[in-house]
């Protein structure tokens, strides 16, 4: 019976659907673990397919490629004597039924297969759509050590872990695909500590890292001793393969010999900013764009979007374009130029005045007898959208939209104008968080950032009143409540699902609450047409929050 166990933990950044590329990452991590003397290596959830694979697993050809890749991994890992076993995670068919599974591969042979029992079907998760639930899992016998290998959701409630403990599990090795939300890392650690204390055995929680469409996986892998103390911690937002050594004491309990609970995991605004950077970087790189193009207004949203883009991709891959109209202030032009200088990107200017005149001439007969209104404002925004999409088509750079969650909530955005583009890095950030992140970034350069040290957003951009500048002397607060009021109401409506009466009782004016509720309901059709963006909050627009466009229930009576 082994009383020592060297466990390698592979916190990797797979690409969904890139089976061959993911297999190379898996084998490279295995070779690193072998060089370090590991006995076994643990991967995050569905590492071979990438997570979440969604409907890809419904393609028979995709499942066939996964089987072929597993066969190849078995052959490659069999060639090295005394190499570590793999807890390889992949979609897998058992008796013709598709599961979210983990395979124990030892000496090039699949020794054991375990399937995920508790399939999440809420928020961004819909695993019941594509997988069948496995039976309550049994322990995995590895060289005389009984390992529990619950998969992600299996540990979020006590049931599966208690079953494995009752079956004699001495240690829990848990593959995970847990996406980032602000403050979620503390929740994970509390939850896993609860499971550890309930079952009395140590647990290693291995999480994926990387961006996948609107989801960001933040890593932050950790392990706890049987008494709930922190034994292993991997950094956030970075790929890592780390070895940990474990011993069995006289009571049969396993503990970590070389506890290193000192890896950096960012918190607060630091974590949010790093999630934005990683989400954008992976979306651009995994989709093979040469870079991004951003319309720079001189306002705070485009400034923060540009700073994140430079930190994610480097200044040479970020193209900034000013598109002034007759209503653009001299201050905005100056602020956009200063911001570009701080970010070291350069900036170009394309005047939309001629486009406004051309559209005005073309539409004059159709608009005869009508006074100018929001229509002409939207034509300005759509003219800018055409310019940015033209640059994107010509040079291949993806248009990065700059709208925030406050604006998207109430429809304060123009379809086919400032909403057009491939990705929206601020999509799940309320305006008050945008302000806070700008001030934070001016004081901090996050780990791994490619942008410059020091101030990158002019202070005047942060302090001046926000404006779309589509008509003379326009301010956002002409149309909307102050952002601190608006964001608190929206947070209660969207994340809290609170009624009008409940929000009014929290201290807000009823007329304002009802106005915001109407705007939120009516803007659903716009949000359906918005590009994806980084999920930060518990209720991001898109796959996380799904409301009908045609909707007769407004709840304004309660």
Automatic annotation (TrEMBL):
Any one GO molecular-function label of the UniProt entry: glutaminase activity
Known function: Catalyzes the ATP-dependent amidation of deamido-NAD to form NAD. Uses L-glutamine as a nitrogen source.
Keyword Calcium (UniProt): no
Pathway involvement of the protein, from the record: Cofactor biosynthesis; NAD(+) biosynthesis; NAD(+) from deamido-NAD(+) (L-Gln route): step 1/1
Keyword Ligase on entry: yes
Transmembrane segment boundaries: none
Binding site residues for L-glutamine: 122, 178, 184
Keywords: ATP-binding, Ligase, NAD, Nucleotide-binding
Catalytic reactions on record: deamido-NAD(+) + L-glutamine + ATP + H2O = L-glutamate + AMP + diphosphate + NAD(+) + H(+)
Chain sites annotated for binding ATP: 295-302, 402
Enzyme Commission code: 6.3.5.1
Single GO biological process annotation from the record: NAD+ biosynthetic process
Signal sequence extent: none
Official protein name in the record: Glutamine-dependent NAD(+) synthetase
Active site residues of this protein: 45, 116, 152
Gene Ontology CC entries for this record: cytoplasm
Domain CN hydrolase: start-end pairs: 5-248
Leading EC class: ligase
Residues noted as binding deamido-NAD(+) in the record, renumbered to the chain: 378, 407, 526
Organism per entry: Thalassospira profundimaris
UniProt record similarity statement: In the C-terminal section; belongs to the NAD synthetase family. Belongs to the NAD synthetase family.
Pfam families: CN_hydrolase, NAD_synthase
Lineage of the species this protein comes from: Bacteria, Pseudomonadati, Pseudomonadota, Alphaproteobacteria, Rhodospirillales
